Amino acid sequence: MTDLVEGTGLVDAKGKATGEMARWMKKSARDAAALGSGKAAKTQTLPSPWLVKFPDNGDEPVIINSPIAFTINSVTTKSSAGTATLTVKIGSTALGGTANSVSTSEQTQAHSSANAVAVGDDVTFTFSSVSGAENVSVMLSCTVELA
Questions:
Q1: DSSP assignment letter at 115
Q2: What is the 8-class DSSP label of residue 95?
Q3: Strand (E) or helix (H) holding 4
Q4: DSSP-assigned letters across all residues of 7-68
Q5: For residue range 16-35, what is the model confidence (pLDDT) as tens digits?
Q6: Which residues sit opposite 130 in a β-bridge?
């Protein structure tokens, strides 16, 4: 040990740690702890906003061949006029839970099943019962797991 730190003041002539070594080790521990507190959380919220100006009854592909895996936790909708029903699908499977009733009032529907998008999946908005709906804002509230 003395060969590695000789002349640094971290050990004495007998190879025992000095007060300087203790201070250095405490500072190193504090620095390491500070690095850990600056890390991003493993689970990140991912907003995915969309605007469909004039929806028609039928499918509107919004994500094709997703490059990342993520989970859709909720869908929020609001239009500037008219009404419609919006069902969000991963592939051909609707998200578990209730479809959104689109209107000029904001509405959020939570989804806790059939809501995992895998790499390569497609996400589609399926509009039905469209009655004069315009400027339909859709917010997918998602989470993604960092490696």
A1: -
A2: P
A3: helix 2-5
A4: TTTSB-TTS-B-HHHHHHHHHHHHHHHHHHHTSPPSEEEEEEEEEESS--SEEEEEE-S-SS
A5: 778 887 888 888 888 877 77
A6: none
147 or 63: whose pLDDT is higher? 63
The pTM of this model reads: 0.75
Distance of alpha carbon 113 from the chain centroid: 17
CA distance 119 to 66: 5
> Tokens standing for 93?
């499977």
CA separation for the pair 113, 94 (Å, rounded):
10
- CA–CA distance, 85 with 72 (Å, rounded to integer): 18
> Residue 1: what pLDDT?
45
The ranges assigned to domains in the chain are 2-37, 43-145
Of the options 2.60.120.220, 2.10.270.10, 3.30.70.100, 3.40.50.2000, the CATH number for the domain spanning 43-145: 2.60.120.220
Joined together, the tokens standing for residue 97 give 């839970």
Q: Which residue has the tokens 């999946």?
A: 121
Cα of 93 vs its chain's centroid, Å: 21
The H or E element that residue 2 is part of is helix 2-5
pLDDT bucket at 115, cuts 50 / 70 / 90: very high
